[in-house]
Amino acid sequence: SLVVLFGATAGAYGAKLGSDERELILLVWQVVDLPSKKVGTLHKSLVKADNLELSDQCREVSGLTPEGLGKAEPLDRVLQQFSQLVSSDLKVLGRSSYTLCSDGQLLIRQVLHPETSKKNFLLSDCFYSFYDLRKEFHTCYPSSAAVKDQTIKTMAEYLGLGTDETEEDFGVWQVKTMVAIIFSMLSESCNDIFTEPETVKCKYETGPCYFGFFFFSLTLCSSKSETVDNETVIRARGLPWQSSDQDIARFFKGLNIAKGGVALCLNAQGRRNGEALVRFVNSEQRDLALERHKHHMGSRYIEVYKATGEEFLKIAGGTSNEVAQFLSKENQVIIRMRGLPFTATQEDVLGFLGLECPVTGGKEGLLFVKYPDGRPTGDAFVLFSCEEYAQNALKKHKEILGKRYIELFRSTAAEVQQVVLNRYMSTPLIPTLPTPIIPVIPPPYTIATGSVRDCVRLRGLPYTAGIDDILEFMGDATGDIKPHGVHMVLNQQGRPSGDAFIQMKSADKAFMVAQKCHKKMMKDRYVEVFQCSGEEMNFVLMGGTLNRSGLSPPPCKLPCLSPPAYAAFQTAAAVIPAEAALYQPQALLPATRTPQATAAAPPAVTYYPAQAAQLYMNYTAYYPSPPVSPTTVGYIAAPPGAVAAAATATHTPILPQPGALVRMQGLPYNTGMKEILSFFQGYQYAPDDYNGLIQLSEQARSVLQAPKEWVCL
After folding, report:
1. Nearest alpha carbon to residue 709 among 584, 580, 578, 581
2. pLDDT at residue number 242
3. Top-tier CATH class for 233-317
């Protein structure tokens, strides 16, 4: 038997059903017995949504009102009634089993499964298998329109059935017409219809992905014929940093993700960067996933874009003998441990975890992460055979082993492969973006160096936090910050890493800030504050990593021909000639949030030179991950006094200094001098100082030396 099912939400209708996250408000169904061609009672149930506001399209198409829906039952009660009424109708027809049949995939995959997952109740088994009437119709009538172009009305028109929807209530006409279409298909004696139902995976399958090859000693070897189709992969961006593969699978509930198909992306320090690549079983599932663009995971919306199989392979495609052996045990829960003492042994880790959370295979269920030279990194991965053992292990988060507290997180097979193979290689896992084209002229204040611990490090900042948020977080201590002493740290993709360094006026001030602000809340996250030295801060800003045990060198060992990418994002003073102030529209200088006023709070001008003869602006530039987000530059306004002084000051030409050169990569081969000058229109050149570096014709020299008008780009 079939149960013909139709539904509607409070938002979009038709091809966009479920794409706007609106809740279900209507279910209509009827039992159809295929052998006897008998039908049961037609049922219609309204569903009370949490948000009773209806879209204009919903009001027009369905005729429903918020008042009527307010008297209905919630979704969980309606689904209980559905099961009871279907069982009763089947008993009357002498049947006991059934399969759902819906008009397309959207109602089951994009509405019912995501909504019930968010509301934390389970769907019955019948919702994990269904027939897509459009596909069955196209199988029976191959000359009809393509599956994606089919609707109930077009199928009825193809068969010559009545298509006047106004004769019946909304939903009732749709179900009656679907039943008539099914009976017409049965009369054609089509043998291949209603034999292979669509399935919805009830659980995401974890495990390693091999994709047709292994990595042995970083050498590519052919093993199987499987490949990754470009039409099956998406990139999810904006994920909470603590989200696991299971959380991502839950976000895409209702869609079938390939086994081991969730790959969390890491930054150069091996930390999650808020992105993941997800591989689906086919292109149809991928296309449905793209419709969940800007759907919510908790309070955050997630961006969903197309990605390629090549990108997925870079993240999840390789493994070594050691990793392959570790991941060979399937259906295991993986936990990542971070901050282990470098002297920790397998026995120490097993003892730390204890008898209440036994590790699968004992020592074989542990994998220590090491640098290429064999030194331990302080990270390890652990296998557990069930969720209960993993939960017991996670309860030990930040407990002490030796003299260090240990962090524990959920992990994935793809993360194991990335960290073990790619984390400490000199080549970044994801190529860094080119140096920003915004010119950075060295500030009059240099970053202090030395072993004096007069700096603090902020870790765990919200990714949306800006300099003004940090100043507000610091409170009274803002008066003790050196001018231009706030430095944001960006990851390899040019996005905020959650870290920042602040230069204080003395080591005592840094100590007091670390004591007062450690684990203080910023927005909805607590921020860790540690005292450090200028040397340690410089090391991180130049690409190294700062661990509890000391410093790790920058990943790139090659000499840089231009400043590192993140040098452009430091909170340095960009010196702009006074003439530029005349062209600054207020739209480019939005007012920043004002820190909460306190008795000791200094004025905003504290962070700028007292005698401001030039315009200083702190800026942060955000570069997007692929594929489509626009590049935006956010300016933090200078104090009005500094702007006024800059507008009236006499401009003194700024001579190029070391680091004032920029290197351009990716130029078209036919690029000439004129195109390059046009590209940098609005910026000041100093060709006379580079005579020994580039050969210029007299014509080019005259163009370069001609007076330039400063404009705001």
Report:
1. 580
2. 79
3. alpha beta
CB 100 within 8 A of CB 86: no
**CA angle, 64 then 65 then 68, to 5°:** 95
Decide if 484 contacts 607 (C-beta within 8 A): yes
Q: What is the pLDDT of residue 544?
A: 63
The whole-angstrom separation of Cα 322 and Cα 626 is 32
3-state secondary structure 387-400: HHHHHHHHCCCCEE
Q: Identify the three-state secondary structure at position 232.
A: helix
Domain at 2-199, CATH homologous superfamily: Ribonuclease H-like superfamily/Ribonuclease H (3.30.420.10)
- CA–centroid distance for 567 within its chain: 24
CA distance 209 to 219: 17
Q: What are phi and psi of 328, to 5 degrees?
A: -70, -25
CATH number belonging to domain 321-426: 3.30.70.330
Give CA 325 to chain center in angstroms.
30
pLDDT for position 416: 83
Domain limits of the chain? 2-199, 233-317, 321-426, 455-542
Q: Nearest-5° angle of CA 512, CA 548, CA 625?
A: 100
List all residues 6 or more positions away from 381 whose beta carbon is below 8 Å from its beta carbon.
326, 334, 335, 336, 337, 366, 367, 369, 411, 416, 419
Chain centroid offset of residue 172 CA:
41
Superfamily of domain 455-542: RRM (RNA recognition motif) domain (3.30.70.330)
DSSP letter string, 424-490: TSSS-SSPPPPPPSS--PPPSSPPP-SS---EEEEES--TT--HHHHHHHHGGGGGGEEEEEEEEEE
Q: How confident is the model at residue 245, as a pLDDT?
A: 86
Give the β-pairing of 2-9 and 99-102. Answer: parallel
Kindly report whether the global pTM for this prediction surpasses the value 0.70: no
According to the model, what pLDDT value does residue 537 have? Answer: 83
Q: What is the pLDDT of residue 671?
A: 79
172-181 burial code (b ≥16 CB/10 A, e <16): bbbbbbbbeb
> Which stretches of the chain score pLDDT less than 70?
167, 207-226, 268-270, 317-321, 373, 421-449, 492-494, 542-660, 681-713
Determine the pLDDT at residue 307. 93
